[in-house]
Design brief:
alpha+beta; 3-stranded antiparallel sheet; 5 helices; two-stranded antiparallel sheet
Amino acid sequence: MSNSLRDQLLGLGYKPAAKAEPQATPTPNRPGQAGSKPAHKTAQRPQHKPREHVAKTGASAAPRTREEIDLAKAYALRAIREKDERIAAEKLKQENARIKREAKAKLSELIKDKVLNVADAEHVRHFEYGGKIRRVHVTAEQLRALNAGELGVVQIDGRYSLVSVEIATMARDILASHVALLVDPNAPAADDPYSDPQYRIPDDLVW
């Protein structure tokens, strides 16, 4: 239509027809958006477990043989026996320690006020005790009496006490391991070489 005809029609009161707006192409709703329909889930077939797994879980374990049962009993009995032996050994150890403590206390009471050591004794008597060479200071008379078996030496708390033969004999009955020296006058001199003055060890010798 030309512009003149269009102008004439407008002048007569005709209005131009409205242009049709293009319609938007509907887009499919995405999952999770409002108004969307839930998508149909594809049916999944249950997965079958391997036959080995079914066999392990479904089937019961094979019963143990008689030999396996006997072996298990033997192990259990041995474990019980070893435990009982450890308990018995510990009890014996504690009992021996208790007896020794009581014996030492009795020995200390025995030699109390009966020790004959002289502070300024001029002689040294060496003897072997506990795998080592020990010594005790004595007077000349005590050295003679010690070598003759008339005196003895008792070890208590690391100290070597000179006592009479009677006390040394009683101490041996209480705790023989703490009698460090008690000469047998009937024994050969070779059994105790340190009783001979010629074997006397100098005081300044370092062991």
